[in-house]
Amino acid sequence: MTTAQERADLLNKIGLDTQNKAALGRVLGTGSIGQATERADGRMEATIRIRPDELSWDPSIVVMPHGGDIQLELINDDQNTHCALLPSNGDRKFIWLVNHSRGRAALNLDGPGYYWFSSPTGNDEGRGLTGAIVVLGDVPPEARLDRPDQPRP
Ligand SMILES: [Cu+2]
């Protein structure tokens, strides 16, 4: 059993949290975590950056307090062109991010769960440009299974 800090230290020591160390990219889910903020109208928003030479999203895990609409501000501070393929109800969204550009994406994620996103050009994903949007909360009553209450840990 390791604590969160031991885990971070071990990932760093082995070289799994940085590009071109133990592996070509960083291991999924090892990046920073950010929480979406909620606006007065109920929509959520978050900013995600690609920092120079890091080939990762910052944050790479974006947490939404519950399902709904989120506006993402995507900023590419890197020297190379990247893009973002993002989850959203109905269809995924795609945006090009040439070097030193920014863009906005409006997503609807109305159910709790993990939703993956990435930059699918070149070998961006293999080098670490993958991330997740985590939606907290419960499914709406109409989507629940009709069964007795189940034990939850
Ligand atoms: Cu809310």
- Residues in helix, %: under 10%
> What small molecules does the structure contain?
copper (II) ion
Helical region count?
2
How many strand units? 11
Unreliable segments of 5+ consecutive residues: none
Give the N-to-C terminal Cα separation.
19 Å
Secondary-structure class: mainly beta
Q: Please trace the helix and strand order, writing H or E for each element.
A: HEEEEEEEEEEHE
Q: What is the 3D shape?
A: globular
Oligomer: single chain
Explain briefly what this protein structure is.
With 153 residues, this protein is mainly β. 10% of the residues lie in helices and 38% in strands.
Task: Write a structural description.
- The protein has 153 residues and is mainly β.
- 10% of the residues lie in helices and 38% in strands.
- The strands form 3 sheets. Strands 2, 3, 4, 6 and 9 form a 5-stranded mixed beta sheet that branches. Strands 1-5-11-10 form a 4-stranded mixed beta sheet. A two-stranded antiparallel sheet has the order 7-8.
- The protein is globular and about 50 Å long.
- The two termini are 19 Å apart.
- Copper (II) ion (CU) binds next to loops.
What labels would you give this structure?
binds copper (II) ion; 4-stranded mixed β-sheet; mainly beta; 153 residues; 10% helix; 5-stranded mixed β-sheet; 38% strand; globular; 11 strands
